[in-house]
Amino acid sequence: MAGEVQMTEEKPHMPEELAAKMKKQGYHFVGRHSATKICGYTASSLEKGGGGCYKNRFYGIGSHRCIQATPAIGCNLACTFCWRIIPEEEGFKWNEINAMSRWDDPVRIVDGLVEEHRKIISGYKGKENVDLKRWTEANDPAHVALSLTGEPLFYPKMNELVAEFHRRGISTFLVTNGTMVHALEKLTVLPTQLYVSIQAPNRELYERITRPKTTGAWDNFQKFLDAFAMKATRRVFRLTLIRGENMVDEAGYAALIRKGRPHYVEVKGFVFVGGARREERGLSYGQMPSGDEIKEFAERIARASGYKVVDYHDSSNVVLLAVDEDAEKGRLIKFDK
User: Fold this and answer.
1) Which of 9, 13, 296, 303 is most buried, by CB atoms within 10 Å?
2) Residue 3 in domain
3) Which runs of consecutive H residues, i.e. helices, occur in the chain?
């Protein structure tokens, strides 16, 4: 590809033992602080008759052409439900929040993520049940979900990064934890779809579930929603609900919805996998909500907020709410390629 920046081998800026553990889990590092990992739905959608993810159903994303990635591995929250590695729980004292002294070039990151994505899917070509047409298309990614791990808005060149993806005809979903207020205010090149994770409807639950590593997280979250509401792009709330924890107070969630004014709200059930199974997190298998429970609670949020239930993806156990009829009709995204 013309203009590509040649990649050089550079170790990720983290303890080697932590990097080795993440590699064992399927992470592919790009430069000092970025990574990608194949999503289960990307893999399954490469198969003949394979199904796509909820983003495919709700918004028309081609799951087989999606890169799951992050430009910043570190995070300032330690959410109990997170399936990812939290360094402190693994015995690492790495300061992931303030560890970077030099940030990689956006073009280099995009080149590296595309290259690693192609490496990952290369092994699928020879499998008997793989759809070769889809596999060929997958080598030309059309979408990136900046949601793999960490807090993407730590990366200070997000405007340039989003612009580079868009220049290549790759649509972007940016998922943030809602604490990086100043970074959001500086975001002027907007992603195709901007997400904020909504972990709880009130301060007490928020602090218990997110276990913030910095002070003032809830107050920053409130300020973030004010700034979020002003961003002129498709805006989405993502709720991860845990039975017996944050599956309460629909009026509180409705108040947050009125504050952030998202076009869509995804009401998703917690899954007891990965890091969420650690004993110190205090969660259990029995706290995964059923599909009926998620649907019922989504209806309660819809009634409290004035939003409309418009769809459900069974295998992800997630309900989609839309702010109005225009949002419902216009939810499928048009691609440049």
Assistant:
1) 13
2) no
3) 16-24, 40-45, 54-59, 106-122, 132-138, 158-167, 181-185, 203-210, 217-228, 250-260, 291-305, 325-329
The CATH number for 36's domain is 3.20.20.70
The predicted-structure confidence for 204-260, as pLDDT tens digits, reads as follows 999 999 999 989 999 999 999 999 999 999 999 999 999 999 999 999 999 999 999
- Contacts of the segment 209-212: beta carbons below 8 A, 24+ positions apart: 209/79, 209/80, 209/81, 209/242, 209/245, 209/246, 210/77, 210/78, 210/79, 210/177, 211/77, 211/78, 211/79, 211/80, 212/76, 212/77, 212/78, 212/179
Q: Confirm if 217 and 77 have CB atoms less than 8 A apart.
A: yes
pTM of the entire predicted model: 0.94
The full length of the chain comes to 337
Q: Has residue 1 been placed in a domain? A: no
Counting the structural domains of the chain, the total is: 1
Give, as one character, the DSSP assignment of residue 5: P
Task: Give the SS3 label for residue 227.
Answer: helix
Q: Residue 6: inside a domain, yes or no?
A: no
Is the CB of residue 37 less than 8 Å from the CB of residue 27? yes
d(CA 26, CA 129): 22
